[in-house]
Amino acid sequence: MAVVDSLVHSASLRLSSSSSPSSKSSLFAGSPLALSPAFVSVKQTCPNRRLVIVSKRISGLEEAMRIRRERELQSTKRLRRRPPLRRGRVSPRLPVPDHIPKPPYFGSPLLPELASEHQVHDSDSIAHMRAACELAARVLDYAGTLVKPSVTTDEIDKAVHQMIIEAGAYPSPLGYGGFPKSVCTSVNECMCHGIPDSRQLQDGDIINIDVTVYLNGYHGDTSRTFLCGNVSDALKNLVQVTEECMERGIAVCKDGASFKKIGKRISDHAEKYGYGVVERFVGHGVGTIFHSQPIIYHHRNEEPGTMVEGQTFTIEPILSLGSIECRTWPDNWTTLTADGSPAAQFEHTILITRTGAEILTQC
């Protein structure tokens, strides 16, 4: 999910949302990160220095990108005439048959701590990971076919839930830290961890659907941002570039590669288009445990660590047309951009190989 994807991580991990120290959204869809002083942006600490850097970079292609960005922001202002996202009615939690194996956190309202172990697999467990991830990919493909104006996110949740349990799997988000639904549906300005409800999708919306399944003791985790009806060019471009950022992050992965290369490659591409990379939510190790080390930063960073053959983790960047800061609703899950600007996210679970990375969550 966009869970540990966005784990807001400073020198120490902090399982909380931006609006409340007790918020549960820290581990979902990229867990939120609480940044230490070392991570405070130049904009906050050295405004004059930042201006000098920007002035040096604006030339040629970058000037053209700046103009394009201004046009997109103007388009975004028009988009925001639409009423801001509001909570709809949340229906009761759906049941899971007794015969389906449940994850360890089932039945507990507590948010599990991020596991410190890196999940490295042998050939048998890789086969299980492939099966779980392939199912997650098929479910996500199916969910995408349901994205149409007037369809509610609750209807998408029910359809996803049914497909997962019919496959003999458990919908991993259900009950995770008290999350009430089987899938995350994040619409427009919702960065991640949106709770399905009675709101109908509108023509021109974008929606990220985040699917994780627990099959035979292994989690497969993936998400994609879909277009609903007639979407503006500005939002189409945001969605396309976000997917490209994920692909570029995956492209640098292989045995022995530094984790920090992922964030650099994603940031380089996002900045060409003037988009902000959300720092609060991060990728995470995944396997028999839903969320574990390593933490995968999608922005530039100097965190140590290298990838190991047989390791599985998610890459799931969130890009915004405006602010990368966020606010969280009182449900402690739904996280929106602070300024109401649209955001998009893509996610894959990958397996590190000797020469590259195998994308497990694709059909």
TrEMBL record:
A GO-annotated cellular component: chloroplast
Keywords: Aminopeptidase, Hydrolase, Metal-binding, Protease, Transit peptide
Region Disordered, annotated ranges: 74-98
Biased composition range(s): Basic residues: 77-90
E.C. number: 3.4.11.18
Biological process terms in GO annotation: proteolysis
Residues bound to a divalent metal cation 2: 221, 284, 316, 347
Reactions this protein catalyses: Release of N-terminal amino acids, preferentially methionine, from peptides and arylamides
Binding site for a divalent metal cation 1: 210, 221, 347
InterPro entries: Creatinase/aminopeptidase-like, Pept_M24, Pept_M24_MAP, Pept_M24A_MAP1
A GO term for molecular function: metal ion binding
Required co-factors: Co(2+); Zn(2+); Mn(2+); Fe(2+)
Source superkingdom: Eukaryota
Residue positions binding substrate: 193, 291
Peptidase M24 domain mapped to chain residues: 128-353
Manner of cofactor binding, per the entry note: Binds 2 divalent metal cations per subunit. Has a high-affinity and a low affinity metal-binding site. The true nature of the physiological cofactor is under debate. The enzyme is active with cobalt, zinc, manganese or divalent iron ions. Most likely, methionine aminopeptidases function as mononuclear Fe(2+)-metalloproteases under physiological conditions, and the catalytically relevant metal-binding site has been assigned to the histidine-containing high-affinity site.
Family under the similarity heading: Belongs to the peptidase M24A family. Methionine aminopeptidase type 1 subfamily.
Reported function: Cotranslationally removes the N-terminal methionine from nascent proteins. The N-terminal methionine is often cleaved when the second residue in the primary sequence is small and uncharged (Met-Ala-, Cys, Gly, Pro, Ser, Thr, or Val).
Protein name per its UniProtKB record: Methionine aminopeptidase
Protein encoded by which gene: LOC115753614
